[in-house]
Amino acid sequence: MTHETAPPAGPISSHQDLNPQELKLRGFKAYAVDTSAGPSHDYRRRDFYKVALVTSPCTVHYADRSIDISTPSLMFANPHIPYSIELHDPRLTGYSCLFTEAFMKENDRSESLQQSPLFKVGGTPVFHLSPEQIVYVQGIFQKILAEQASDYLYKGDLIRTYLQLLIHEALRMQPSESFVQHKNASSRITSLFLELLERLFPVESPNQTMPLKTAQDFAQQLGVHVNHLNRAVKEVTGKPTTAHIAERIIGEAKALLHHTAWSTAEIAYSLGFEYPTYFSNFFRKHTATTPLAFRRDAGRVAEAS
User: Fold this and answer.
1) How far is CA 146 from the centre of its chain?
2) For residue 250, how far is the Cα from the chain centroid?
3) Which of 17, 38, 168, 251 is the most buried if burial means most Cβ atoms within 10 Å?
4) Both 125 and 242 in a single domain?
5) How many domains does the chain divide into?
6) What is the CATH number of the domain that holds 95?
7) What is the rounded distance in angstroms from the CA atom of residue 283 to the CA atom of residue 279?
8) Domain HTH araC/xylS-type spans what residues (predicted)?
9) Could you read off the pLDDT of 23-64 as tens digits, one per residue?
10) How many CB atoms lie within 10 A of CB 13?
11) Cβ–Cβ contacts within 10 Å for residue 47, how many?
12) CB atoms within 10 A of CB 253
């Protein structure tokens, strides 16, 4: 398994790395990918949004999921979800474009990327392309690279347009239910609740702890009665508020157990549990296994791969 390092400042043959601060100032960086497999696999959260065309067989380990890529695919990643790439060939090839949310939202022409189905936690980050789509997507990345190297005064606007074309190509492949927009009061409060829940993650440090843990906590933060919140969430999603909170905590717990060396006590405290035993009982209730057993089994899967 390997991970991608900072992209080169020029063509892939150049070994001069781009300063991350420079990327923040410019807002974007596109580059061709052609890298050898390395011995390590650093599983971490990146600082930028990313759209990539992956043309080599690999497995993307994304949060607590693993997604196999056997044919050229379009991949989306955001700075809030950790991922790593495990190669099945000696080299990883394709194209990548890193960008900040500020770059995409310049002139307020774009909604928050975190609200896009492509970048949401639990969404589908990988899209397998047809032969026709491969040619189309490859052509867009080549246009982005060419424009990046040009001195055209409005190249930023043009690159944003190309990125939007890549995003829309994937959105066309999304299930239609991903885009249902509810306009009633229940939908509004549910949307606010889900957004507030997502803001609590990812957990970046064992010293951090969740400020909101119960449906009552969320209701107070949103300024509504807990019964109103529970009714709205159940009406819109079909699941209780507590189920959404539990699922999100379990998802983060799995990612931390699998991809960090934190002790179960550190994970428990960071996720808002007063005692490690409370966390263990909660984890067992929702997964039918203990945190230590999950960590051990996840390690075996990683070694076998």
Assistant:
1) 27
2) 16
3) 251
4) no
5) 2
6) 2.60.120.280
7) 6
8) 198-297
9) 555 788 999 988 765 433 444 445 688 999 999 998 887 766
10) 8
11) 12
12) 25
Question: Scanning the structure block, which residue is given the tokens 């507030």?
Answer: 196
Range of the domain at 275: 185-304
Task: Say which residue the tokens 């076998």 belong to.
Answer: 304
> CB within 8 A of 295, min separation 6: which ones?
257, 258, 264
pTM, to two decimals: 0.56
Q: What amino acid occupies position 250?
A: I
DSSP state of 177: G
Helix 185-199 vs helix 215-222: crossing angle, to nearest 10: 110
The angle formed by the CA atoms of residues 217, 220 and 226, to the nearest 5 degrees, is 80
pLDDT digits (tens, 9 = 90+) for 263-298: 999 999 999 999 999 999 999 999 999 999 999 988
Q: Is the peptide bond before 202 cis (omega within 30 degrees of 0)?
A: yes
How far is Cα 28 from Cα 149, in angstroms, rounded to an integer? 12
Distance CA 170, CA 174 (A): 7
**One-character DSSP codes across 114-152:** GGSTTTSTTS--EEEPPHHHHHHHHHHHHHHHHHHTS--
